């Protein structure tokens, strides 16, 4: 009986707005993959529209040739022939549900919308996996064991390229429409139950869900590699990674440095981007070990001779740091003091 209740007038209007928004999605890019590398300081971008690929496709295809990846062509993806139809169908359903206004129809529409989103993301991951793993064995550049699958969402380092995958305008509209539909269902349920206390709890849960969606990509630090990585500040190739450092921005982008001095200078030049960034240091005694800032003990000595004369080394215990400070006639230093002392 409850499912035959009609939804409120406001929710009908919101459904119409959602239907109009979905029509916009048909004409704008839904997803984007940005690539950055020292040889492309301006970056390269690929845009995925509902019916085609856009952006720097030809340049990206040229790069893909060297590592054995298949070229990207719109006609190779059957999804581009059906995706606009599916989006228009959903838009029509939004208008239809708004016109009829039955509560059960709103619930069914939400379930269909979520299922479509899950299927679309699984298909996108499958597409990325196939292109990143099925490589030409006769490619000019072959790195044993290396795959080039871009991240589903967030940042990933692929050799000297940084790949950042995020929704584009159409994707954000689609997500917003889904959240709008969720809110409509929650509102109708609360009106039926007349429980305003549950409304406050549901809003809290919704905020938590949104927060998890945007911050679930837990980017981990990547060990520095001599002969492969270059410093994000001075652009010099790594010669001695014992003095290296790394930071991860709150958006998940990774910057690598061959010297603590370079990372401090980068912090001072990019205060907005480095705010709340995670900081890691290479363990002087174990090059493959990256130590988070809270567990790091730093020493400074002119006898260390780091690549850019920062002459700072990191250790994971105070005992190791004190021993090396005595050995190299150095002093224990604090990260905050180093930042302050180098600010102009």
Can you count the helices?
Answer: 9
Distance between the termini: 71 Å
The parts where pLDDT drops under 50 for at least 5 residues are: none
The ordered H/E elements are HEEEHHHEEHHEEHEEEEHEH
Our Rg estimate from Cα atoms comes to 26 Å
- Output the structural class: alpha+beta
Share of helix, binned: 40-55%
- Count of the domains: 2
Strand order of the largest sheet: 3-2-1-5-4
What portion of residues belong to β-strands? Answer: 15-25%
Number of E-type strands: 12
| Mean pLDDT over the full residue set | 83
For the report, how would you describe the main beta sheet?
5 strands, antiparallel
Tertiary shape: flat
Explain what this protein looks like in three dimensions.
The protein is an alpha+beta fold and 344 residues long. The protein has 2 domains: 2-215; 241-342, no CATH class. Helices cover 45% and strands 18% of the residues. The chain has helices at 9-25, 57-67, 79-100, 103-133, 169-193, 196-215, 260-269, 318-327, 335-342, and strands spanning 31-37, 40-48, 53-55, 154-158, 161-167, 245-248, 254-257, 278-283, 286-292, 297-300, 312-315, 331-333. The strands form 3 sheets. Strands 3-2-1-5-4 form a 5-stranded antiparallel β-sheet. A 4-stranded antiparallel β-sheet has the order 7-6-8-9. A 3-stranded antiparallel β-sheet has the order 11-10-12. Strand 4 and strand 5 (161-167) form a beta hairpin. Helix 1 (9-25) packs antiparallel against helix 3 (79-100), helix 1 (9-25) runs antiparallel to helix 5 and helix 5 (169-193) runs antiparallel to helix 6 (196-215). The longest helix has 31 residues, at 103-133. It is flat and about 80 Å long.
């Amino acid at each position: 009986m409850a499912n035959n209740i009609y939804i409120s007038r406001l929710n009908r209007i919101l459904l119409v707005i959602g239907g109009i928004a979905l029509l916009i999605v048909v004409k704008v890019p839904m997803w984007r993959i940005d690539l950055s590398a020292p040889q492309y300081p301006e970056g390269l971008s690929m845009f995925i529209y509902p019916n085609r690929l856009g952006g720097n496709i030809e340049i990206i295809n040229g790069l893909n040739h060297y590592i054995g990846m298949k070229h990207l062509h719109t006609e190779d993806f059957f999804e581009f022939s059906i995706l606009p139809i599916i989006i228009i169908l959903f838009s029509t359903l939004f208008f239809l549900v708004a016109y009829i206004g039955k509560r059960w129809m709103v619930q069914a529409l939400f379930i269909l919308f979520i299922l479509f989103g899950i299927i679309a993301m699984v298909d996108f991951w499958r597409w990325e996996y196939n292109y990143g793993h099925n490589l030409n064995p006769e490619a000019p550049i072959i790195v044993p064991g290396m795959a080039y699958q871009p991240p589903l969402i967030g940042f990933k380092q692929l050799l000297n390229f940084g790949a950042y995958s995020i929704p584009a305008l159409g994707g954000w509209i689609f997500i917003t429409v889904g959240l709008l539909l969720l809110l409509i269902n929650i509102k109708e349920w609360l009106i039926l139950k007349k429980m305003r206390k549950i409304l406050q709890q549901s809003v809290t849960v919704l905020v938590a869900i949104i927060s998890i969606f945007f911050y679930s990509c837990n980017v981990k630090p990547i060990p520095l590699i001599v002969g492969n990585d270059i410093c994000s500040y001075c652009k010099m190739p790594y010669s001695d990674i014992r003095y290296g450092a790394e930071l991860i921005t709150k958006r998940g982008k990774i910057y690598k440095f061959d010297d603590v001095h370079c990372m401090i200078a980068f912090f001072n030049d990019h205060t907005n981007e480095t705010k709340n960034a995670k900081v890691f240091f290479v363990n002087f005694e174990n090059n493959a070990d990256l130590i988070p800032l809270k567990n790091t003990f730093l020493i400074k000595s002119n006898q260390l001779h780091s690549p850019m004369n920062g002459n700072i080394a990191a250790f994971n215990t105070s005992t190791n740091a004190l021993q090396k400070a005595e050995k190299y006639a150095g002093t224990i230093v604090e990260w905050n003091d180093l930042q302050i002392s180098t600010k102009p």
